[in-house]
Amino acid sequence: MTSACGFHLRGDYLLPDEVHEISLTSFDQYSSLTRDVQKQLRMNGIRQVAPTTVTPSLDLISESLNERTLSLYQNSRAAEKELTYNVSYSVLIPGHDLKTYTTTVNRNYLDNPLTALAKSVERDMIEEEMRAQAAEQILRQMARLKADDAPVETSDVITHDDETESKVTTKEVIKSMSTTAETTQ
């Protein structure tokens, strides 16, 4: 009964069938982000294979960590900071277009200059958590490829509007049906 309601365990992303094996390339094969993405691929049952023209590929393009001061102490030192972690990556499934995405993770933390050593360890832990969360977001986005990147096919659906006929793609028909259902609710 639980399978009929759509319930899935957290982290089970129902990736498309085309992505049961994937080639992973990265700007740095030994980075923490690459290891986190490899771990997420293994957890979701995706085999990592060598790049070919017939296998889907995931390319980690870049990562960046930016810092912004949110508040100051009375002596003009930074009290609270915001960390922003950005990852750019692209996904190529054979027969579909290359899609480039960016995922962003934000975190705030208090920076106390009196406990500099403890705060540097805390910051390292926050950065690790942000990388792991970005890797999860990459897999979540890949799960959406099933709906977002369906190949466009022209079907024989013909619409009649004021005596004019036009051919419509299957994707457009489904999109119009879903928007009609949303507006009626």
Descriptive report:
The chain has 185 residues and is of the alpha/beta class. Helix content is 32%, strand content 35%. It is built from three helices and seven strands; from the N terminus they run βαββββαββα. The strands form two sheets. A five-stranded mixed β-sheet has the order 2-1-3-4-5, covered by helices on one side. Strands 6-7 form a two-stranded antiparallel ribbon. Helix 1 packs across helix 2 (116-148). It is elongated and about 60 Å long. 14% of the residues are buried. Mean pLDDT is 77; it is low at 149-171 and 173-185.
Straight-line distance between termini: 26 Å
Return the string of H and E elements.
Answer: EHEEEEHEEH
Give the CATH class of the largest domain: Alpha Beta
Number of helices: 3
CATH superfamily of the largest domain: Lipoprotein like domain
Structural class: alpha/beta
CATH architecture descriptor name of the largest domain: 2-Layer Sandwich
Number of domains: 2
Largest sheet: 5 strands, mixed
Instruction: Tell me the fraction of residues in β-strands, as a range.
Output: 35-45%
Report Rg: 22 Å
Counting DSSP E segments of at least 2 residues, the number of strands comes to 7
Helix content: 25-40%
Instruction: Report the average pLDDT across residues.
Output: 77
Strands of the widest sheet, in order across it, are 2-1-3-4-5
List unreliable stretches of 5+ residues.
149-171, 173-185
CATH topology of the largest domain: Double Stranded RNA Binding Domain
Protein name: LPS-assembly lipoprotein LptE
Family: Belongs to the LptE lipoprotein family.
Organism: Aliivibrio fischeri (strain ATCC 700601 / ES114)
Pfam families: LptE (PF04390)
